[in-house]
Amino acid sequence: MIQGRLGSLVGRSSGYVESLPAPVRRRVTGLKGIQKEHSKLEAEFQQKVLELEKEYFAKFKPLYAKRATIVNGQSEPTEDEVQAGKPEDEDEERDSKAKDEAKSEDIDVPVAAGIPEFWLSAMKNHISLSEMITDRDEEALKQLTDIRMEYLERPGFRLIFEFAENQFFTNKTISKTYYYQEESGYGGDFIYDHAEGDEIEWKEGKDLTVRYESKKQRNKSTKQTRVVKVKVPTDSFFNFFSPPKVPAGGDDDAASDIEERLELDYTLGEDIKEKLIPRAVDWFTGEALQFEEYDEEMDMDDFDDDDEDDDDDDDDEDRRTEGELDDETDEEIYQDDGTKPKKEAAECKQS
User: What is the rounded radius of gyration, in angstroms, for the C-alpha atoms of the chain?
Assistant: First the structure.
């Protein structure tokens, strides 16, 4: 994998250890032997943690299943569940008023079954996910009925997206599987190896990962022009199920770009597994954003003002160089749908 090619660039000896007297080098070697024993215990610890995660995941599954039935209108929460979900500081007067308003709404307005667009709203409140979701994607993601996770027999996990019947594809579920390497890494942690996604069975003309451009072509001999339709890739959340592949060649620039994309892809998968699925209702209401923003503020404390000034200078340079066009081109590109990815701010985005 890419890490193997990059490995030769790090960990090179400075020559200092080799210059030490033989008795000292022997002691250093002895410390390495002790470190190996420590590493074995770390790997054992991580394995125990994984077993504990699986044990409690089995206890979480009935709760996730109950959540899915409520979201999809197959059942209603019990009175005990509703009471447990209320804020602890909610006073009786406000509670009584809310009940009266709810009764009035029940009479005047028909209520949809379940919680419409639950998962779409939750995903749009997650910053990284919201940046992937385009306007066109939303119609398909409104049909998302559940997001589940399961552990693999080998190290790794699978994310399962369940959909109601829709106009875009025939899949009932679309899965993405993340695999870890069999051997643990430094510190006993599991090392990400690769990911695989299901093929989406798009209905005719409904592929959200491509768009059609009208391209004007000019015949060099006759100077006549014609307009042809060209299919080109476009931004879409559903590209998530086609993870980046490690290049076969040795291009360092390509390897660096893929390395970054692989890291982002894995981080997003971990976020869905560790944050979105366990606390979906907090992402739906937007409450989870409070904790995310707090974490970001803590991270920003690690940076000084000089770094921010450098970033501002880089942004100014980018603005000066963006948007340059070639006026001599003979081709004109038109987008039929005019759709561009939607960038959302860090705020609750319930529709």
Answer: 27
